Description:
The protein is α/β, with parallel strands linked by helices and 447 residues long. The protein contains 14 helices and 15 strands.
Amino acid sequence: MLRGCGAALALPLMEAMTPAARADQRLAKPPLRTGYFFMPNGVNERRWRPAGNAEQFELSPTLAPFKGVKNKLLLLENLTNQRTAGRNGHWPKVPAWLHGGFVKRNAGSDIDVGGVSADQVMAAEIGNQTPLPSFELGLEPTRSGVDNAGGGFAMLYGSHLAWRDPHTPVPKEIVPQLAFDRLFRTASAGPVVSGFNPNQPAVTNALQRDDLSVLDAVSEDVWLLKGKISAADKVKLDEYMESVRAVEKRIENSLKPQKRWINAGRFDIPRPGPGIPQDHREHVRQMLDILALAYWTDSTRISTFMIGDAQSGRRFDFLDGVTNYWHGLSHHQNDAATMAQYTKVIEWNVAQFAAFCDKLDSLKEGEGTVLDNCQLLYGCSIRDGNKHDIDDLPLLLAGGGAGTIRSGRRLISPKKTPMCNLHRALMERMGVKKDQFGDSTGVLPLA
Length: 447
């Protein structure tokens, strides 16, 4: 009846509904979730690498916030994306982080990232098992244009992790309220409204009507935009709109009966207010809470989260002593004062992910916790922001992989091991087997 009425499902009803759920509509055990968390601009190498051997290591200063879940942390070392070697420091490395492909230099009209991202490979095969096949979140709006000073790459590359095909990104949502509403709507509340104007009346009204397509809500803006852009950009806009329509269709199809995991107890968070919080700390907190809610309610099992886009210019002046912007700080040139600010920004962002892991580990699920039933990859597409190096990327994997990952150690692979070997290992745990993915040479042993 709730679907027929187009009503949102309030969280307090979840506990009341649990006893009435038919056995054949419920999973027998908690599902595995896969999440990718991307941080731009590299790390301070000296404060990232831990001391100790593979089986007994000490948390480095940057990783210190993980002390509560250290035994559920796997530090990944010597992984790389060799097809990004010798290229621009940022733009082509971001999409390649999830597929290892060769990203084509372009003028914005012939986008080609050289592969399909790992999350979308999973979503294509198993995304129909949840209301949202995948969930793409971020904190910064998509950028357009070409960075001619940065090698002639479209800046669109640096704004997306998820790619449905080599030419089409999957839009990310940056407005907390719209992200929240996607979890509890019964029709096509698509993810791309924030790419236009989240405060326009048409979009606001669309949140009240489940039968309205997001593309319909912004169609007037799209029509006006087409009158102001080049023929090449019109083609790209059409491709972009088609990708959103595809997401909408998949969401509609997913409303068919599915076997879901239903957690006992309650996990209540308020619906965020409209727009984007002015305080970046609040913005991050709300988006991570929404993602935790998505896992808890089994609304999705596949997600990406962009902590910042390529060359993020965000300022962190709420941190004591930080006065410059993020990308500028990453070019520290080993200056002590600049490095100190750069380090504070990195470690604040890492601490937010650590707090997210603590939250998931506090949520009991089955015989363990939600974190036990996750595999969450956190890291960067470059190692050091000053050198833009791609070998031994800073990566960590949080969660137990539903009992399939041996955590609490450093996994030191041979030098220049393809990161795509890791993607294949995560895919297999989600029930998606690929004999080849990107430049993979095998499957990374995580057990």
